[in-house]
Design goal:
The structure holds two protein chains of two kinds.
Chain A: E1 3-15, E2 21-33, E3 37-41, H1 48-55, E4 63-68, E5 71-72, H2 78-86, E6 88-92, H3 103-108, H4 118-131, H5 147-159, E7 165-169, H6 177-194, E8 197-202, H7 205-211, E9 214-219, E10 222-228, H8 229-234, H9 239-246, H10 255-259, E11 270-276, H11 285-293, E12 296-307, E13 310-320, H12 323-335, E14 338-345
Parallel strand pairs in A: 3-8, 3-9, 6-7, 7-8
Antiparallel strand pairs in A: 1-2, 1-4, 4-5, 9-10, 11-13, 11-14, 12-13
Chain B: H1 2-5, H2 7-11, H3 13-48, H4 57-71, H5 75-90, H6 95-120, H7 124-132, H8 137-148, H9 150-176, H10 178-189, H11 193-220
Helix pairs in contact in B: 3-4, 3-6, 3-9, 3-10, 4-6, 5-6, 6-9, 7-8, 9-10, 9-11, 10-11
Classes of the chains: A alpha/beta, B mainly alpha.
Chain lengths: 346, 223
């Protein structure tokens, strides 16, 4: 499909009120595929919000360039920039609906000055409200809606100019888990049906896991790791990435648990962790080693999910048997397409 | 009944009626003209300020300092200082005609600041969403700033008009007419206590009506 958004060596500095320079983004390189859902994750203050606002020119880079469909956003005059913004919808954590306008008027606002006739506007808005599942809310004011409904209205408003890109700035961070899941489902559906490119910034790894194909990890203004979501989840390199992934995984046992009496080992027992790296099938590894090498495999923790049609996660187990059986089992496991980590010996 | 409590007012009822009409004239004309000018200056201050949608340090500094300058002059001194200019603009410096110009100059800086603070109360997220949907500066001003601030603008307009009532009384002192003039002439100089009380009551009614209307509009526009 090709690249739709590209960052080339983008730096962004702010001059604070006391004339101090504050570097928000450092040498950011990024390429986002057209039609994909791309996530940017980082803690508060990492520069995510600034980064996403460079795409629609609300912020301008101090150096470097941001290309949207091959055109540098910074090179556009006022009129062209406004034309570009109509092709890039955006939704926010706090929804930003106009309180004095009805749901219908809110959704119609971006095309109100576009020269479209009233009938066309009515058709478009009605269609979009159906698409986001709020056909009966056209004439109510935003204050009467729930958070999830407000975000649906915001999504309809963001889509009314038929954009090619949808920017989501912490769009689910103010919502409860169930509503978050519903909104993510809606975004996935829009991506699939309309082919719209989606860029998400979030501090929740779960959002990345549920929604995105590509991801970049932002730490203090720098992209420390990026790539395909499965690869990043199955084989994270950076400590920050591991920290984020740990928030969605149950496999990382705290050291106190590993050291506790619960996991006291005896004989030739070993506490091991196996994780999927990039396999396409879940092999019956545990049954195999217990039959073949006569070891007992006591599963302590298990967390396996399917991400992008591939298994992700793993097991923490205690291998129990004689010395040879345990060694052979470990050797066998090492030869498989999994990662093996011995957490503790007897 | 009226004769019993307000003998002097009844005796000069024509002058009292004229005074009320003069005060209302001053309020309406000054209120409308100053509202339009203050709205323009308030918007200008908000959009040209640091981080505004049409940031312009020079314009902002100019209007900011100008407002500070005029606000630092006590109104009674301002009236006197403006007399030559008032004569040029209004043709006279006395009567209702001569009060409109100093009243506008007196109230507009305060009114502009009030409008500015009302507009700045608006959630910046709303302005940003106007920007991201590709609206122009003018479209954001009227479809976001003004439209979404109607309730706050009504509130500050009520406050300002009530302050303006005070100013119209002061202009009376320098021969401007109106209720202030009546209170000074009859109540103070001729020591007719009932005239002063009648003036207070009329002003109380005017202010109350303004407050009631303001609150009503403010409520109507909030959803």
């Amino acid at each position: 499909m090709g690249t739709i958004i590209q960052f080339n060596h983008v730096n962004k500095q702010f001059t604070r009120a006391d004339h101090q320079q504050l570097t928000v983004l450092k040498d950011v390189d990024l390429a986002i595929e057209a039609g994909s859902i791309f996530g940017i994750i980082g803690y508060s203050g990492a520069g995510k919000s600034t980064l996403i606002r460079l795409i629609n020119g609300i912020e301008t880079p101090t150096s470097g360039e941001v290309l949207v469909k091959g055109v540098a956003v910074g090179s556009l005059d006022h009129q062209k920039l406004r034309d570009l913004r109509r092709k890039i919808g955006m939704i926010f954590q706090q929804f930003n609906l106009m309180p004095s306008r009805t749901v219908f008027e809110n959704v119609a606002l971006p095309i109100r000055f576009s020269g479209l006739d009233q009938a066309t506007i009515r058709t478009k808005v009605t269609h979009l409200l159906e698409l986001v599942g709020l056909p009966d809310k056209a004439d109510v004011y935003p204050a009467t809606l729930s958070g999830g409904q407000k975000q649906r209205v915001a999504i309809a408003r963001a889509l009314v100019s038929d954009p090619e890109v949808l920017l989501c700035d912490e769009a689910t961070s103010a919502l409860d888990p169930q509503t978050t899941a519903d909104i993510l489902q809606l975004i996935r559906q829009l991506n699939a049906e309309l082919g719209i490119t989606v860029v998400v910034v979030t501090h929740e790894m779960q959002v990345i896991e549920d929604l995105c194909q590509g991801v970049a990890v932002l730490d203090q203004g720098q992209i420390v790791e990026s790539g395909n979501v499965y690869n990043l989840f199955s084989d994270p390199q950076q400590p920050l990435t591991k920290k984020f992934i740990a928030t969605t995984s149950k496999l990382d046992l705290p050291q106190e648990v590993v050291d506790s009496d619960l996991l006291t080992l005896s004989g030739h027992q070993q506490l091991i962790k196996i994780t999927y790296v990039n396999s396409t099938a879940i092999e019956p590894l545990i049954s195999y080693i217990s039959r073949q090498f006569q070891v007992n495999a006591n599963i302590i923790v298990g967390d396996i999910k399917i991400l992008q049609q591939k298994p992700l996660g793993g097991l923490v187990i205690i291998l129990d048997g004689d010395q040879q059986a345990v060694d052979q089992s470990l050797a066998y496991l090492k030869a498989q397409k999994i990662r093996l980590e011995v957490l503790k010996h007897a | 009944m009226l004769e019993q409590f307000f003998p002097n007012v009844v005796a000069s009822s024509d002058a009292f009626g004229t005074a009320i009409i003069q005060t209302l004239e001053m309020l309406v004309i000054t209120g409308i003209v100053s509202f339009v000018i203050s709205l323009a200056i308030g918007v200008l201050l908000v959009v040209t300020q640091r981080g505004g949608i049409a940031e312009n340090v020079v314009v902002w500094q100019l209007f900011d300092k100008l407002i500070n300058f005029f606000r630092s002059i006590p109104f009674i001194i301002l009236i006197a200082a403006l007399i030559p200019l008032t004569r040029i603009i209004a043709g006279t410096a006395i009567g209702v005609k001569g009060t409109i110009f100093p009243l506008i100059v007196g109230i507009t800086p305060f009114f502009s600041r009030q409008i500015e603070s009302a507009l700045n109360e608006l959630d910046p997220g709303l302005v940003e969403s106007g920007q991201v949907m590709g609206l122009s500066v003018w479209q954001i001003i009227h479809a976001v700033y003004l439209k979404e601030s109607i309730a706050s603008i009504t509130r500050v307009t009520t406050i300002t008009l009530i302050s303006l009532v005070g100013l119209t009384a002061i202009v009376g002192v320098v021969g401007g007419g109106g209720i202030g003039d009546f209170a000074i002439q009859y109540g103070y100089q001729q020591n007719q206590q009932d005239a002063t009380i009648a003036c207070v009551l009329v002003l109380l009614v005017i202010v109350s009506i303004m407050q009631i209307i303001g609150t009503l509009i403010s409520k109507q526009t909030q959803h």
